[in-house]
Specification:
The structure is a single chain. The protein is α+β, with helices and mostly antiparallel strands. The chain has twelve helices and eleven strands. It folds into two domains: 159 residues, no CATH class; 215 residues, Lysozyme (Orthogonal Bundle). The strands form three sheets. Strands 1, 2, 3, 4, 7, 8 and 9 form a seven-stranded antiparallel β-sheet that branches. A two-stranded antiparallel sheet has the order 5-6. Helix 4 packs across helix 12, helix 7 crosses helix 9 and helix 11 crosses helix 12.
C-alpha cells in the first residue's frame, strides 16, 4: 500500500498496488480505441444574415450558411478491476452542453452538480453503464462509471477515451482523420485510480529524459545564447528550471494555491499524464489566447524563436512545432534565453549610471531569484521585470500567482 494522499479537493487518492501492470492496461486501452471505428457525429445547417457594415460585393450573398456540430460520440475504454478485462463503450454528447461546461471551466464559474456537466447518452440504449463526470475538461475529463442501480463505482476505471476535435491541421498532427472537418484523438485522462508512486516515478523519468535530450540536442548544435556572449543557450539555465516551468504551465492556480501540500498533488497529476500519454501528453492542450502544447508557447513567440535561432533546427510549422513535445521543449529553452537577453541588452551601456545600477541589481541576484524572473517573463514578457527596482512587477496578479506556483513546484524538490 502507498501512503495516504489527498487531491486539491481534499479527496483521498491513495490506491493499492493493482494485481496487474497498470501501464500495460493503459497501452491495451489505447490500442483498443485506436483500432476501433471512427466516432460518429451529426451536424445541422445554420443560416444567418450578414451584419450591416460588413464589406460586401454585389455577388456576396446576404445570408451565410454553415454546418454546425450538434452532437458527437465519445468512446471510453473501461477496465474491470476484478477481471482485468477492458471493454469499449460509446456515448453521445450534446455539443451545446460541452460548450457550456467549457465556458464555466474557463471562467471559473461553479460547475459542480450533474445538471451543469455534459450528459452521456448510451449509444445503445440497453447498455447499463452510467457515466459520472467528476471534473470536465473535454478529452482530459475525470470520469467514473458504474452499473446502474449498483454501488460498484470502484470496480471500473476509465483508462482512455476517444474524443472528436476540429481538424486544425498541424496542432493535431498524428491523429486519425474523421472526415475533413474533424479528428479522433485517443487520450488517457487523469483519475485518482492512476495516482500511484509507480506512475509518478514513470512520469518523472519520462520528463527527465525529454528535457535532458532537448539540452543535449541544443548543446550539440552549439546554439549560442543571445544574452551572454560566448555562452551556449543551455548554459544559462538548469534542466530542473525547465522541468518546473513545464509543470507550472499546466498547474491550475486555484488548485495549487489553495492546497495544504504546496501543490504536490497538482505536480504529480502532471507527471501521471506524462506517464500515461508519453509524447502525446499535452499535444492538444491549447488556451483561449492561442498557447499550445506542453510548453504553452504562443504562435508569434514560436515563429520568433525559429527565426532568431536558425541553428536550433526547430520545426518550421508553427502548430506542429508547438505540438511535438521534444521540439516544443527545445523551443521553451530558447524562449527563456531570448527573454533574458532582452533584459541583459538593456544593461550593456556601462557609461550610463542608470544602467550601471540596473546591472548591479541584476548581478546581485541568486540563481533562484533569476529563475523566478525567467518564470515571470515566460508568463508575461520581459516587461514583467522592472530594471529600476530589480524586482518582478507586483501589479499583474496573474504573474504574481504564476511565480508563486513556480516556487511551490520548485520547493517540492522532485528532481533532486
Amino acid at each position: 500500500m502507498i501512503a495516504t494522499q489527498v487531491n486539491a479537493h481534499g479527496e483521498d487518492i491513495s490506491s493499492a498496488d493493482p494485481a496487474f501492470n497498470i501501464m500495460e492496461k493503459i497501452n491495451e486501452a489505447r490500442s483498443l480505441l485506436e483500432k476501433s471505428n471512427g466516432l460518429g457525429y451529426d451536424e445541422h445547417r445554420v443560416t444567418a444574415r450578414r451584419k450591416n457594415g460588413a464589406r460586401q460585393s454585389d455577388r456576396t450573398p446576404p445570408v451565410i450558411s454553415r454546418r454546425v456540430l450538434y452532437r458527437q460520440q465519445i468512446a471510453l475504454a473501461i477496465l474491470d478491476k476484478k477481471t482485468g478485462c477492458i471493454i469499449e463503450k460509446r456515448y453521445w454528447l450534446d455539443t451545446e452542453e460541452i460548450i457550456r461546461a467549457n465556458r464555466m471551466r474557463n471562467t471559473r464559474e461553479d460547475n459542480t452538480g450533474p445538471a451543469k456537466m455534459p450528459r452521456f447518452h448510451p449509444y445503445i440504449a440497453s447498455r447499463n453503464f452510467e457515466v459520472v463526470v467528476n471534473w470536465w475538461n473535454t478529452f482530459n475529463s475525470d470520469l467514473s462509471v458504474k452499473n446502474k442501480g449498483q454501488d460498484n463505482a470502484e470496480q471500473y476505471v476509465v483508462l482512455a477515451n476517444k474524443y472528436l476535435i476540429p481538424n486544425r491541421g498541424g496542432s493535431a498532427h498524428g491523429s486519425h482523420r474523421n472526415g475533413s472537418r474533424y479528428l479522433d484523438i485517443v487520450y488517457v485522462p487523469y483519475s485518482r485510480a492512476l495516482h500511484s508512486e509507480a506512475m509518478i516515478d514513470a512520469g518523472k523519468a519520462f520528463l527527465n529524459n525529454q528535457v535532458a535530450q532537448a539540452f543535449t540536442d541544443l548543446r550539440e548544435k552549439q546554439v549560442k545564447s543571445r544574452g551572454y556572449s560566448g555562452r551556449l543557450a543551455t548554459d544559462t539555465m538548469s534542466e530542473n528550471f525547465i522541468k518546473c516551468l513545464l509543470i507550472n504551465e499546466h498547474s491550475d492556480p486555484g488548485w495549487m494555491l489553495s492546497t495544504k501540500d504546496k501543490g504536490r498533488w497538482v505536480a504529480e497529476r502532471f507527471l501521471i499524464l506524462l506517464a500515461a500519454n508519453g509524447e502525446r501528453a499535452f499535444r492538444f492542450s491549447d488556451s483561449r489566447t492561442g498557447a499550445l502544447g506542453i510548453a504553452q508557447i504562443m504562435p508569434e513567440t514560436y515563429a520568433h524563436v525559429v527565426n532568431i535561432y536558425p541553428g536550433a533546427d526547430l520545426i518550421g510549422d508553427v502548430d506542429r512545432g508547438r505540438a511535438e513535445m521534444a521540439n516544443a521543449i527545445k523551443a521553451s529553452i530558447l524562449v527563456c534565453d531570448d527573454l533574458q537577453s532582452a533584459v541583459v541588452r538593456n544593461m550593456r551601456d556601462d557609461s550610463s549610471s542608470f544602467q550601471q545600477n540596473y546591472r548591479r541589481l541584476f548581478d546581485a541576484k541568486s540563481e533562484e531569484e533569476v529563475d523566478e524572473i525567467r518564470a515571470a517573463m515566460y508568463n508575461g514578457g520581459p516587461k514583467k521585470y522592472i530594471l529600476a527596482t530589480g524586482s518582478i512587477n507586483p501589479r499583474v496578479q496573474e504573474t504574481v500567482s504564476y511565480v508563486k506556483k513556480f516556487n511551490f513546484i520548485r520547493s517540492l524538490n522532485m528532481f533532486e
